């Protein structure tokens, strides 16, 4: 029986300041091993923007006195396309479809891996991951970033912030709100959260830099992270 999982691969681990060659090398090797060991698995990888999005958005904001939110989003989307094109190239032997930039357009998904990136303003690539999960019948989105778990507050600002193992959608959405702001730094974006809740999806937030942990999640083994849903 075919099993499809969606990975929302944060730009913060693809290109935290510059492209992390060593992480991508380890991720590629582990993914190829997983595909060989699980011949019925198919993986959708949705890439975030990372440093390119942040740097170019900041350049726009520093030059223009009144930056437009929609244009900030388009800049971030372009960065996700850059990262997506790189990841698709890394998995060229397993990904025969074009880079997905519209989750509602026709998609063949002929290979073992499908790579997608940002679509349009109004939300982050997290939302594209949810749309693709719904479209292809995946029950879980694995959200990989540079944090190991969701916290009750920002631990950088609140020393009393506590890590969360499991949380329901209603409580999580109270934490992240309902409004998307370009470049907003939340564990899972508000629009994606609403869509995931409505679709009955589970989201697992984990530190994508921990390769062994990521593939423990894929194998339904014990892992470190936060389960939302």
Using the CA coordinates, give the radius of gyration. Answer: 17 Å
The second-level CATH architecture is: 3-Layer(aba) Sandwich
The CATH superfamily appears as: Acetylglutamate kinase-like
Count of domains:
1
Order of secondary-structure elements: EHHEHHEHEEEEHHEHE
Shape: globular
Distance between the termini: 24 Å
Sheet of most strands: 7 strands, mixed
Strand arrangement within the widest β-sheet reads: 3-2-1-4-8-9-7
Low-confidence stretches: none
Number of strands: 9
Helix content: 40-55%
What number is the mean pLDDT? 93
Strand content: 15-25%
Instruction: Report the total helices.
Output: 8
CATH topology: Carbamate kinase
Question: What are the SSEs and their pairings?
Answer:
Elements: E1 3-9, H1 11-14, H2 21-37, E2 41-47, H3 50-63, H4 69-90, E3 113-116, H5 125-136, E4 140-145, E5 150-151, E6 163-164, E7 166-167, H6 169-176, H7 190-198, E8 202-207, H8 211-218, E9 226-228
Parallel strand pairs: 1-2, 1-4, 2-3, 4-8, 7-9
Antiparallel strand pairs: 5-6, 8-9
Helix pairs in contact: 3-4, 5-7, 6-7
Structural overview:
With 229 residues, the protein is of the alpha/beta class. The protein has a single domain (10-228), classed as 3-Layer(aba) Sandwich (Carbamate kinase), CATH 3.40.1160.10. Helices cover 41% and strands 17% of the residues. The strands form 2 sheets. Strands 3-2-1-4-8-9-7 form a 7-stranded mixed sheet, sandwiched between helices. The protein has a two-stranded antiparallel ribbon with strand order 5-6. The relative contact order is 0.16.
């Amino acid at each position: 029986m075919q099993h499809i999982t969606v990975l929302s691969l944060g730009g913060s681990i693809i290109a935290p300041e510059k492209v992390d060659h060593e992480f991508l090398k380890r991720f590629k090797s582990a993914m190829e091993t997983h595909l060989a060991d699980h011949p019925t698995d198919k993986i959708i990888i949705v890439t975030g923007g990372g440093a390119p999005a942040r740097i170019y958005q900041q350049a726009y904001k520093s030059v223009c006195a009144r930056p437009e939110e929609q244009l900030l989003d388009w800049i971030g989307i372009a960065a996700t396309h850059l990262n997506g094109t790189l990841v698709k190239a890394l998995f060229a032997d397993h990904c025969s479809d074009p880079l997905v930039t519209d989750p509602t357009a026709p998609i063949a998904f002929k290979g073992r891996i499908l790579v997608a990136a940002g679509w349009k303003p109004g939300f982050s690539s997290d939302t594209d991951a949810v749309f693709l999960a719904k479209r292809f019948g995946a029950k879980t989105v694995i959200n990989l970033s540079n944090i190991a778990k969701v916290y009750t507050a920002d631990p950088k600002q609140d020393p009393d912030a506590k890590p969360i193992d499991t949380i329901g959608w209603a409580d999580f959405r109270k934490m992240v709100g309902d409004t998307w702001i370009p470049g907003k730094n939340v564990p899972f974006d508000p629009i994606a959260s609403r869509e995931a809740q409505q679709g009955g999806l589970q989201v697992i937030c984990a530190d994508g830099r921990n390769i062994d942990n990521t593939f423990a999640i894929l194998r339904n083994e014990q892992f470190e992270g936060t389960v939302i849903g």
